[in-house]
Amino acid sequence: MGNYKDLNNQEAIAKLKKLAEDIKICLFCTELTQLPIKSRPMSVLEVDESGNLWFMSSSESNKNFEILADNRVQLFFSKSADNEYLSVFGTATIFSDRAHIEEVWTPIAKAWFEEGKDDPKVRVIKVTPSDAYYWDTKDGKLIALLKWATAAAGLKDAKSDDGGIEGKINI
To answer: pTM of this prediction?
Structure first.
């Protein structure tokens, strides 16, 4: 992918929101200075107007204890079927705010919280990005595939525009 486009302010937040909410599931990584890094799949519930990413978790999960010890986290989103990728580094904060829990609650969360949204263990995690990078296609999946196929068949220079775009997201 040879096309770079760094994004700033509202354009950056819009790209972060589009990719994170479209891909939905990320690898949520903690204990970034220790090997092996702890990672687990998590579903983003919301990307707010400031670019913060929100997740739901149990107060008793190892992830929450790890965040309390070191709040630096890395999120990796990947949707290879659409050539969309997002990496977010930031800080995590754990909240027990009932109003926000109510706002982001989904019925599927009941699988983890027997008492539903009123379960005293329900927490929300806010990840505030400090560094983010994205990769996707500027022309859409079909056009990108055609460009790659043309290059693979030797009908176009592989170094020419492949339809990909990447850049830093500056919030």
So the answer is: 0.84
